[in-house]
Amino acid sequence: MSLSSRGKLELKRPLESGQVRQNFSHGRSKVVQVEVRKKRTVHAAEAEAARRGRGGGSDARLREVAESLSGDLTNEEKAHRLRALQAAQQRAEDEARRKAEEEVRRKAEEEARRLAEAEDARRKAEEDEARRLAEAEDARRRAEEEVASPREPGAVRTATPADAAAAAASPVADAAARRDKPRADGAEADRARPAARGRPATGREGEQDAGPARRGATATPAAKAPAKTPSTKRVEPKRRGKLTISSVLTGDDRSERGRSMAAMRRAQQKERRKQQSQPQERVIREVTLPETITVQELANRMAERGGNVVKSLMKLGVMATINQVIDADTAELVIGDFGHKAKRVSDADVEIGLVAGPDEDETLMSRPPVVTVMGHVDHGKTSLLDALREADVVSGEAGGITQHIGAYQVQSASGARVTYIDTPGHAAFTAMRARGAHVTDIVVLVVAANDGIMPQTVEAIRHAQAAKVPMVVAINKIDLPEADPDKVRTALLNHEVVVEQMGGDVLCVEVSAKKRLHLDKLEEALMLQSELLDLKANPDRVAEGAVIEAKMERGRGSVATVLIQRGTLHIGDTFVCGKEWGRVRALVSERGERLEEAGPATPAEVLGFNGMPEAGDDFIVVADEAQAREVSGYRQRKDREAQFVKSARGTMEQMFERIHAGEAKELPVVIKGDVQGSVEALIGTLEKMGSDEVRVRVLHSAVGGINESDITLAKASDALIIGFNVRANPQAREMARRDGVEIRYYSIIYNVADDVKALLAGMLEPTFKENFIGYAQIREVFNITKVGKVAGCMITEGVVKRGAKVRLLRDDVVIHEGSLGQLKRFKDDVREVREGYECGMSFEHYHDLQVGDMIECFELEEVAAEL
Ligand SMILES: Nc1nc2c(ncn2[C@@H]2O[C@H](COP(=O)(O)OP(=O)(O)OP(=O)(O)O)[C@@H](O)[C@H]2O)c(=O)[nH]1
């Protein structure tokens, strides 16, 4: 009973109570009454009773206790109380079990710690033992060395104590090993026992635990052994028995075996990794570096990541994308940055290896011959080509419209195939040869039976001979009544062409293009000649060929007819062609068919050029676009440079260099003269001149002025043109200047002989050089008393100067050489007259001037010895 508040008396159980003031916002507050009620707990005695009641399943006793405590409680309350008692009992049991487990775990940990200590001790003992063994071995070796000198037995005797010392150490391990078993069975088993006892674990777990315990036990005596063994007599004989070097080695072996397999494998892997990683780190590449290179290509050549190369460039302050072209100097810095070595190559090196070497014999397969038709104007070249084309069985079957693409292939009824170059005449043939393309295998020389050998027939023969291409003579127009094939055959003898019928080896067929006579015989002759040549090519390689014709077509771009010479060209191939490059977009045959590929001796129109190639350009398939760009870039640069440095002497100088280097064995010349007699005299003089090392080879000789055909022939063979009292016509002059062909003019045979001799000896010393200054054409001739004949002229080229040297040319032939007498403009003497103006000229001591004659004006310049 208590006085709770304000003197009010209450019959209530005393409670811990009080008041708490709660403060809220805005200054409000509230007093709250707080009471603490005690929770009803089960008495300790009750718990004890409950525990005792467990085991016999004594729910009844619990119930008794509960009842004794509850007195007069309701049934529900009793049941509730009973449940509480049972829960309390359960908790007490759990607590007891947990404690027991805790105790077992603690003991196991203690045991493990003890075992670990024992293991440590054993390992230490082993190390000590190994050290002692090594020392003993050392001692023994020293002893041996000391006594190694005169007496062997002594050595043996002195070695004994050392051996004994070593033995003192080695048996320790043996003794320990031998003691392993009993100990494991006895003491160690004892030690393991508490763990087994204390742990409520399965038998298997117990066994596993006993394992390390037993292993650990073997170490214990070993650790102690070194101190004990020397004193124990029992160990002595065993020690002696094991005292050998092999025992020491065995000891080593044992220590090796002690390493786990996993450790060994790890060590091996580490070693292997080290070996593998070492060379990779040290790979220093030699990077071939052209004048310019793309970042990507540079990265490829260094075998580095493109991104890293870009980063390296950034470090150098060069912001370049992966496809950007950088110069060689920058690229060299980058290469140095990556630790590689740069190998600068000259531009010309890009051409190295572009054209592969000859193919293996076993890869070669027969290919059709490539034939060019040549002959004099109107002798029937075009008619013959048309007639041959009509004989094609394939186009007949297909019924397609044939197109002119510059070359076509004909299949005869016998199945034999022949490829014809569609542009007749030697001009195209030699122009192609001048560009380095050796396309033609056989030349068909067309001679009209009614007309015989004509000037262009001779030119054609010379061109074919210069190119060393065999000929097949086709005597055409035999259908005509006036045809005289025998006359043609005989005339050919004059030009070193001896046909079969005359006992030679040149095949000769009589045909009529118009009447389609004996065309099959001509094909037979071509096949025979082709067999003699044994024409073969490897079709299974990247394609190489030459451009026969090139044109720009609306909607198709640059289109070129390419004759494949070896390999097979496929759609998609990247190629270099002369200065241009491209990727094959399409291949079209002369019948307008789309081709997938083109093999050796097959002509095909190629679409996909990036620029316009020229006839005679080489066509080579390359590995990739980068190479194609590189080669074409180089060729374009070279071509631009050549435009600047081109001189008329270029080709000849190269020729002389080759003669002096011993590479060239002959000096090719083209002789043009004013009369047949002087031409023959020149040929005789020059051909006699040669020595064993080098001789003059006359490619072509004729009467008449120098024309374009002579220039192309000279260009193709790096020949010198000798003009004896003749001149080159303006077109030929322009061509010679453009192509760097040297023309030398002479009027005295001995001068020719002296110059050529000097050329061959490499000692040409022209003391005077002729500088051409201008041409004038005589428009009118005035006869003036006292003065003689004066020519009213127009200056057509260059300039004419007073006092200059002049030559008078009539039909490109020199008829006079001397000095200019007078040079007047409207009755006034002038110093010079320029191109496009009229003037009056007279010659000193010469008056045979005619309208239409040309006056060549030149100066003589003294020059130092050259060549
Ligand atoms: N009677 C006869 N006439 C022929 C024969 N072959 C060609 N002709 C004629 O000779 C002329 C010239 O023939 P082309 O084939 O044009 O001669 P070409 O050599 O190609 O002439 P160019 O193209 O000017 O060099 C034509 O009128 C033909 O009809 C033939 O076998 N017999």
From TrEMBL:
<feature type="compositionally biased region" description="Low complexity">
    <location>
        <begin position="210"/>
        <end position="230"/>
    </location>
</feature>
<feature type="compositionally biased region" description="Basic and acidic residues">
    <location>
        <begin position="91"/>
        <end position="149"/>
    </location>
</feature>
<dbReference type="InterPro" id="IPR023115">
    <property type="entry name" value="TIF_IF2_dom3"/>
</dbReference>
<dbReference type="Pfam" id="PF00009">
    <property type="entry name" value="GTP_EFTU"/>
</dbReference>
<dbReference type="InterPro" id="IPR000795">
    <property type="entry name" value="T_Tr_GTP-bd_dom"/>
</dbReference>
<dbReference type="InterPro" id="IPR000178">
    <property type="entry name" value="TF_IF2_bacterial-like"/>
</dbReference>
<dbReference type="GO" id="GO:0003924">
    <property type="term" value="F:GTPase activity"/>
</dbReference>
<keyword id="KW-0396">Initiation factor</keyword>
<dbReference type="InterPro" id="IPR053905">
    <property type="entry name" value="EF-G-like_DII"/>
</dbReference>
<dbReference type="InterPro" id="IPR009000">
    <property type="entry name" value="Transl_B-barrel_sf"/>
</dbReference>
<protein>
    <recommendedName>
        <fullName>Translation initiation factor IF-2</fullName>
    </recommendedName>
</protein>
<dbReference type="InterPro" id="IPR015760">
    <property type="entry name" value="TIF_IF2"/>
</dbReference>
<dbReference type="Pfam" id="PF11987">
    <property type="entry name" value="IF-2"/>
</dbReference>
<dbReference type="InterPro" id="IPR044145">
    <property type="entry name" value="IF2_II"/>
</dbReference>
<dbReference type="InterPro" id="IPR013575">
    <property type="entry name" value="IF2_assoc_dom_bac"/>
</dbReference>
<feature type="compositionally biased region" description="Basic and acidic residues">
    <location>
        <begin position="176"/>
        <end position="193"/>
    </location>
</feature>
<keyword id="KW-0648">Protein biosynthesis</keyword>
<dbReference type="GO" id="GO:0005525">
    <property type="term" value="F:GTP binding"/>
</dbReference>
<dbReference type="Pfam" id="PF04760">
    <property type="entry name" value="IF2_N"/>
</dbReference>
<dbReference type="Pfam" id="PF03144">
    <property type="entry name" value="GTP_EFTU_D2"/>
</dbReference>
<dbReference type="GO" id="GO:0005829">
    <property type="term" value="C:cytosol"/>
</dbReference>
<feature type="region of interest" description="Disordered">
    <location>
        <begin position="1"/>
        <end position="281"/>
    </location>
</feature>
<dbReference type="InterPro" id="IPR004161">
    <property type="entry name" value="EFTu-like_2"/>
</dbReference>
<keyword id="KW-0342">GTP-binding</keyword>
<keyword id="KW-0963">Cytoplasm</keyword>
<dbReference type="InterPro" id="IPR027417">
    <property type="entry name" value="P-loop_NTPase"/>
</dbReference>
<feature type="compositionally biased region" description="Low complexity">
    <location>
        <begin position="155"/>
        <end position="175"/>
    </location>
</feature>
<dbReference type="Pfam" id="PF22042">
    <property type="entry name" value="EF-G_D2"/>
</dbReference>
<dbReference type="GO" id="GO:0003743">
    <property type="term" value="F:translation initiation factor activity"/>
</dbReference>
<keyword id="KW-0547">Nucleotide-binding</keyword>
<dbReference type="InterPro" id="IPR006847">
    <property type="entry name" value="IF2_N"/>
</dbReference>
<feature type="binding site">
    <location>
        <begin position="375"/>
        <end position="382"/>
    </location>
    <ligand>
        <name>GTP</name>
    </ligand>
</feature>
<comment type="function">
    <text>One of the essential components for the initiation of protein synthesis. Protects formylmethionyl-tRNA from spontaneous hydrolysis and promotes its binding to the 30S ribosomal subunits. Also involved in the hydrolysis of GTP during the formation of the 70S ribosomal complex.</text>
</comment>
<feature type="domain" description="Tr-type G">
    <location>
        <begin position="366"/>
        <end position="536"/>
    </location>
</feature>
<comment type="similarity">
    <text>Belongs to the TRAFAC class translation factor GTPase superfamily. Classic translation factor GTPase family. IF-2 subfamily.</text>
</comment>
<feature type="binding site">
    <location>
        <begin position="476"/>
        <end position="479"/>
    </location>
    <ligand>
        <name>GTP</name>
    </ligand>
</feature>
<dbReference type="InterPro" id="IPR036925">
    <property type="entry name" value="TIF_IF2_dom3_sf"/>
</dbReference>
<feature type="binding site">
    <location>
        <begin position="422"/>
        <end position="426"/>
    </location>
    <ligand>
        <name>GTP</name>
    </ligand>
</feature>
<dbReference type="Pfam" id="PF08364">
    <property type="entry name" value="IF2_assoc"/>
</dbReference>
<dbReference type="InterPro" id="IPR005225">
    <property type="entry name" value="Small_GTP-bd"/>
</dbReference>
